[in-house]
Design goal:
mainly alpha, 6 helices
Length: 132
C-alpha cells in the first residue's frame, strides 16, 4: 500500500474513459452534422466503427462528461476536425490540441467526480492536482 492508498488511479486513466469518448463523440457529431459526411467515412477518419459513430451522433455513447458547451473546447475540436479534413494530418499538432482539451477539462474540475468514482478514497475537496 502506497501512503495508505488502496488504488493507484491516475487522472490520465480516468480521462481515457471519460474525455476521449466525449471528444470523439463531439467530433463524430460535427463531422456528420456540420460537414455532411456519411457515418462510414467518419468512422474511417476517426478510426472507430460505424456503429460507434451512430451511437455518438445519437448521444447514446460518449457523453459521460459534458464538454459540448465549452467554447474553448469547441474551438479546439474545430481545429482538430480541420486538420483531419485537410488531408495532411500533422499528428503532433492534433495531439497537442487534444492535450489542451484535456487540460481545460481538468482545470475546470469537470473530471473530479469521475476520479472519485474510480477511487472512492480520493478526497476531491483536498485534491487540487488537475486544477493547478
Amino acid at each position: 500500500m502506497l501512503n495508505g492508498a488502496k488504488h493507484l488511479i491516475l487522472p490520465c486513466e480516468v480521462a481515457a474513459k471519460s474525455i476521449v469518448p466525449a471528444v470523439k463523440a463531439l467530433m463524430a457529431k460535427q463531422l456528420v452534422e456540420k460537414h455532411d459526411l456519411k457515418q462510414d467515412k467518419v468512422a474511417e477518419i476517426l478510426g472507430i466503427s460505424q456503429s460507434a459513430v451512430s451511437k455518438y451522433t445519437r448521444n447514446v455513447r460518449g457523453y459521460v462528461i459534458k464538454i459540448d458547451k465549452t467554447q474553448e473546447i469547441e474551438s479546439l475540436i474545430n481545429q482538430m476536425i480541420d486538420l483531419l479534413l485537410n488531408g495532411t494530418y500533422p499528428r503532433e499538432e492534433f495531439l497537442r490540441y487534444f492535450c489542451q482539451i484535456c487540460i481545460i477539462i481538468r482545470k475546470k474540475g469537470l473530471m473530479c467526480q469521475y476520479c472519485k468514482k474510480a477511487d472512492p478514497n480520493i478526497k476531491i475537496e483536498e485534491c487540487h492536482f488537475c486544477l493547478t
